[in-house]
Write a structure and sequence with these properties.
By secondary structure, the chain is of the alpha/beta class. The protein has two domains: about 160 residues, 3-Layer(aba) Sandwich (Rossmann fold); about 70 residues, no CATH class. It has ten helices and eleven strands. The strands form two sheets. A seven-stranded mixed β-sheet has the order 6-7-8-3-9-10-11, sandwiched between helices. It has a four-stranded antiparallel β-sheet with strand order 2-1-4-5, covered by helices on one side. The protein is globular and about 55 Å long. Bound molecules: adenosine-5'-triphosphate. Adenosine-5'-triphosphate (ATP) binds next to helix 1. It is found in: Cell membrane. It is a peripheral membrane protein. It holds the Pfam family ABC_tran.
Length: about 280
């Protein structure tokens, strides 16, 4: 693994109660890349997220390799990982991701205090973080508890908490599923903005093709705990190869134009579809 690689997953398998849930998964994520794991309910997405973030139940059996920045962490819980190999997590359920009994200010301060940033410097860091995630009037919000925020505000706070630890790798598991469409679009814009400078490497996990297409340049399609197709996002949508991917796209009823892929459309093409890109992988 070279220094341009943030995450390398090799032959990863996870079994729960003796049942295989994820089988033989291989993929790599380069620094600053935005990759999506796309699959229907039950395809193993959240299990993969938990394996990557070190939050699987202790009884789960993990084999294969998860290498984050040169550290082997397969089966290693988050508390035993070196700080540089801890992926930050953003989950669907922002209410249960935050401690309901602790104010927003205290939850945001914690990562800074752990790094020895205190007093005025810590408060300033929290305020600039809130500005970064687009929270207006941050001072009013800091004194509140998570239950006193809207869903969109709460998800922004979760993103801020994830970013406060200055993670290299962020694993976002269905981060917008619980939000209404307008708030969903804003949170997606925010994640895109935050990752545009390529300091954040993003692994998005979703069942929603439209969400994936807005944010990611590449996708791996999962079915039954296995990767069945891997391709650049525009190619995947324009010409899905695996029957499962085709079904996913048909079900989403999305069109290339609706996915704002116009900028990638080949102007010489009469089909209106993106031009073919580099090679792709499809399972039989
Ligand atoms: N704690 C558990 N005990 C037993 N089986 C589990 C457990 N967690 C997950 N599974 C099983 O593992 C499989 C994959 O589940 P997982 O939650 O990873 O899928 P998913 O793609 O994230 O689904 P969803 O989109 O519905 O959250 C499912 O068949 C699920 O029933």
């Amino acid at each position: 693994m070279d220094e341009t690689t943030m995450l390398s997953v090799t032959n990863l398998s996870v079994s729960i109660d003796g049942q295989p849930v994820v089988s033989g998964l291989d993929f790599e994520l380069k620094n600053g890349e935005r990759l999506c794991l796309l699959g229907a309910s039950g395809s193993g997405k959240s299990t993969i997220a938990a394996a990557l973030t070190g939050t699987l139940a202790a009884t789960t059996r993990v084999t294969g390799s998860i290498d984050i920045r040169g550290h082997e962490v397969a089966g290693v819980p988050i508390s035993r990982r070196p700080p540089e190999a801890r992926a930050a997590a953003i989950f669907q359920d922002s209410l249960s991701s935050l401690n309901p009994l602790v104010t927003v200010r205290r939850q945001l301060l914690q990562p800074f205090l752990r790094r020895g940033v205190r007093g005025r410097a810590a408060d300033t860091a929290v305020e600039s973080l809130l500005a970064r995630v687009g929270i207006e009037q941050p001072r009013r919000l800091l004194a509140r508890y998570p239950g006193e925020l809207s869903g969109g505000q709460r998800q922004r706070i979760c993103i801020a908490v994830a970013l406060a630890g200055t993670p290299g790798l962020v694993v976002a598991d269905e981060p917008t599923t619980a939000l209404d469409v307008v708030t969903q679009a804003r949170v997606l814009d925010l994640l895109r903005e935050l990752s545009d400078d390529r300091r954040m490497t993003l692994l998005l996990i979703t069942h929603d093709l439209a969400v994936a297409a807005k944010l990611c340049e590449r996708a791996i399609v999962l079915a039954g705990g296995r990767a069945v197709e891997s391709a650049p996002m525009d190619e995947l949508i324009a010409a899905p190869q695996h029957p499962y991917t085709r079904a996913l796209i048909d079900a989403a009823s999305v069109t290339v134009s609706a996915l704002h892929l116009a900028s990638q459309v080949d102007p010489t093409s009469t089909s209106g579809l993106p031009s073919p890109g580099p090679a792709r992988e499809v399972s039989p």
